[in-house]
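Listing S7. Sequence submitted for prediction.
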Amino acid sequence: MAYDFYLDAMLLPVTPSKLTISIDNKNKTMVLINDGEINILKKPGLTDISFTALLPQTKYPFAVYKNGFQKADVFLDKLEQLKASQKPFQFIVSRTLPNGKLLFDTNIKVSLEDYKIIEDSKNGFDVNVEIKLKQYRDYGTKTVNVTIKQSKPVATVQNTRPAESSPAPKVTAKSYTVAKGDTLWAIAKKYYGDGSKYTKIFEANKGVLKNPNVIYPGQVLALPG
């Protein structure tokens, strides 16, 4: 059976002998007072993937290259780019039978969490790289439009005690006792500053006076305000 390992379209020249895919749940165990231990089931966490890849420094007949032989430094540079880019990429493992029939693929979006370069004298000039990947899930923030309806302020009128109207000032009617030689004109001139207002005095005293030109000493006349 043939295996092909792709890291962001980069085909590893030698298929790793072992692939570990760890799928862990995030279930939480709790102990209740009366019911004992329980398990709270949660959605599974991100998948962890690990394997060790051989990067040859010489061309082997069992190694596969898409674009001709390439030394280990080309693949190491690609790994560093994947780690430094802070971007997810596709990890694909294609499994086919000797007759070319496809079994199934592992196709998952991942991030390169860590890689270790191991140089061992047993491998000559070749390099082993321990690679650790973690599943990446796309996410995004949700935008919520909040509409705030502002009601118009309502003025509250409090009933207050009506202002008490001040009573009109009392007008004290003045009186005048006619002296010898007085005339209504002279009296109006004296009290109103205008002799022509004598008619005002006459109208107020019609019960006493019959003729505005005839008044007698001793008569008591009302002087309206």
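Caption to Listing S7: primary sequence and predicted structure tokens for the chain studied. The mean pLDDT is 85. The first strand starts at residue 2 and ends at 7.
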